[in-house]
Amino acid sequence: MEHHINLPITGMHCENCASLITRHLKKMEGILSADVSIATEQAAVTFDADSVSEDAIVDKICSLGFDVVDADAESSARAEEFRRQKLQFTVGVIFTLPLFLLSMGRDFGIIGGWAHAAWVNGLMFALAAPVQFYVGWDYYVGGFKALRNRAANMDVLVAMGSSVAFLYSVAVALAGFAGAGELGTHVYFETAAVIITLIKLGKLLEARAKGQTSAALKKLLGLSPKTACLLKNGEEQHLPIAQVTIGDMLLVRPGESIPVDGVVCEGESAVDESIFTGESLPVDKTAGSAVTAATINQSGLLTIEATRVGSETALARLIQLVQATQQSKAPIQRIADAVASVFVPVVIGIAFVTFLTWWLLVGEGFTPAMLRLVAVLVIACPCALGLATPTAVMVGTGIGAQHGILFRNTESLERAGKLSTVVFDKTGTLTRGELTLTDIIVGKGARLQSAPTEPEGNQKQGVLLQFAASAERGSEHPIGKAIVGAAAERGIDTIAPSQFTAVAGHGIIAQLELPSNGASEPVGALSNNEASEPVGALSKRANGSNEASEPVGALSKRANVIIGTPVLLHQHGISTVAEPFQLEAERLQTEAKTVLWVAIDGKAEGLIAVADTLKPEAKDAVAELRRLGCKVTMMTGDNRITAEAIAQAAGIDDVMAELLPEDKASAVKKRQAGTDGFVAMVGDGINDAPALAQADVGMALGTGTDIAMETADLTLMHGELRAVPEAIRLSRVTMRTIRQNLFWAFFYNVLLIPLAAGAFYPLTYLPTMLRELHPMLAAFAMALSSVSVVLNSLRLQRRK
Question: Rounded to the nearest 5 degrees, what angle is found at the Cα of 182, between the Cα atoms of 179 and 186?
Fold first, then answer.
């Protein structure tokens, strides 16, 4: 059985540590995949539970010299580790500062001749030893573990470099006490101490900065409710969220977070869903409404039934996706990993070649050669290489998660920045995915307007909509629901039809029982401008009373209503050819709208048009994609006339129409094989899944189906089309930051290792400090390099 775990690990100091654990885990039987990240300090392991256990995996990591902490205690364990490191640094400063001042004061002759006495070297040893063996103990332990496992990491370099300076100084001091001067009189205890203290400072700053890179994920984790109020046998019981099971009835008071995903059983309220939808306005919830964990109940008391708990809630899945993305490695990181794997042995080799060259070939003497060896060992920084990609990925994906943009893995993040073509599905992606009433045409051709300019025309439209909505109350068809919904939105009352027949593919036929209110021709109001109360036959009067309490009876009149295609009207002997509505119908059809003829009592009285309208942000999103240099295409299964009308409204000039689901995947593949470069597919439905899988980057709207989101490389949680160009822009700035980090990491090592080795010594016009780089400056540069990479990644947080 396949299992997946994330194990928090302590004790890793550089990318080589992460590579060591990864390599050994992959050698274990039953391990399907293993990925250890120095940035997240976690191991993501997929394994066959029948072949290997989680305990065996943990034991293997511990056997390598690292510790695995419990996920629940990870935060406290990291905090305790940071406090320990901070204490070590404080101790380092307390002993290093006076040691450094004493050494510099003696070298520059500031503190007098007593400083050259042999006992002063003993004092320096006493100050340096705690730094070397307490503050620097972690480097000895880490280096020993690495060498024991036939690997080499940053700890080996630091331990070797500081130890060479320290042990040489011990030898000089002992020789001085013995009266022998073959090794000279100058000691470098302060060099060893400053190296260790500065690198410890760099690691502290790095740890703090790395903590900020995961701030977005921590914010998501902080949203998770900790407890729930269980209703059982009429009593309330507060319990940890982990104990809630599917089917439990939970009470949620105003101001509280919804504890799990569920359905409202009792109560009404407004719920703030902005963390998922991005909408600031709360959403009204009543019985039967779905609610999501971590959203905020604002006003009323709700009783909900738990439908998804634990790791299955929408919030938990969002967090899992962000964690998985941050844990995965981008293709661009393979270069850095390949270099890091051989980096330390190569540096050690360069250091010893440098030592031998300056001592034996150049003849500079043992001490200058030793200092160059120490400088080379200390200045080399594999950490910068290891942190260049994952820190930028953590910040970028965290920002994306805050804006509802979820990348499945870092490969998707990298590919999104290379996109040159974006293909949109039409229905439910560019359009709302539901029919909306768009036009009502009556005798004079008056259009439905939000601010009527022709009251008489609008009055006729209201009457026509009232008859149509009353007739459609018996329909389950989306068109009928759109008409009924439009009437409800406008406050138009309707009555249920006494008879109703749906004619498949053509429309409906209904009979309405109209209450008589003194108007001898209740239907004639559609064509007779003298009717004072054309709407009153079916609705409440202006004073709010409804005098027609019995619509069916002796005083009622009967109206026969037909709504549908011209064919349906022709079948009932109703003419459409000679009517003035014909031209209007043709015009509406060219606008990709579905046109319904409305006939009352044997006469065509008007037209009603419905359409799946364009999302309001669609045109802006398409324009923004063009500004990013992307070609935009629309594909749909609809007919070409409808497709081109929607595409024109969205500003898209490349349309693929009348496609089957399997045709969509083929169309994407054809674009990939052509000159369109990297192709993205944006969709929301089950029929989009093959195309989403085929595309270089599949983008699924979070408002769509689960299968679409599972197939996609990128999920837009808010369902906003503007998130498409935002995702591409986020990918591009993240990849730009990664390239900057890698350039800096490579440039730093390629330039400064030769500098430390003395390659620039012949250039006499350079300052002496560069021609003869002191190991203390090398340690400062090494500490700065990894911190600068992390800080550069954090700059992403300031971008809009």
Answer: 85
Do residues 78 and 22 touch, judged by C-beta distance below 8 A? no
β-pair partners for 609 = 439, 595
Q: Which is nearest to 491 in space by CA: 429, 412, 544, 427?
A: 544
pLDDT tens track for 165-213:
899 889 888 887 776 666 666 788 888 898 888 888 877 877 776 666 5
In three-state secondary structure terms, 478 is helix
pLDDT at 535: 38
Burial (CB count <10 Å: 0-12, 13-18, 19+), residue 27: exposed
Single-letter amino acid code for the residue at 674: G
Cβ neighbours, 10 Å, residue 567: 13
- Kindly compute the dihedral angle of the four CA atoms of residues 304, 305, 310, 315, in this order, to the nearest 10 degrees: -50
Nearest to 303 by CA among 241, 258, 362: 258
Burial of 23 (0-12, 13-18, 19+ CB in 10 A): middle
Give the pLDDT confidence of 40-54 residue by residue, as tens digits. Answer: 788 989 999 899 999
Buried/exposed 433-462: b ≥16 CB within 10 Å, e otherwise: bebbbbbbbbbeebbbeeeeeeeebbbbbb
pLDDT greater than 50 at residue 549: no
Ordered alpha helix ranges (H), 652-774: 661-673, 689-694, 706-711, 723-757, 768-771
- Out of 155, 248, 261, 425, the active site residue is 425
CA distance 211 to 208: 5
Residue 618 CA: distances (Å) to CA of 20, 290, 735: 49, 27, 27
**Model pTM score:** 0.69
Tell me the C-alpha distance between 164 and 159, whole Å: 8
Per-position DSSP letters for 78-135, written without gaps between them: HHHHHHHHHHHHHHHHHHHHHHHHHHHHHHTT-S-GGGGSHHHHHHHHHHHHHIIIII
What value, to the nearest 5°, has the Cα angle with vertex 777 and ends 776 and 779? 65
> 654 has which bridge partners?
633
Instruction: Quickly tell me which residue has 């591009």 as its tokens.
Output: 732
CB neighbours of residue 29 within 10 Å: 9
Run of H or E including 206: helix 189-213
8 A C-beta contact, residue 375 and residue 779: no
End-to-end CA distance of the chain: 44
Q: Identify whether 337 is a catalytic site residue.
A: no
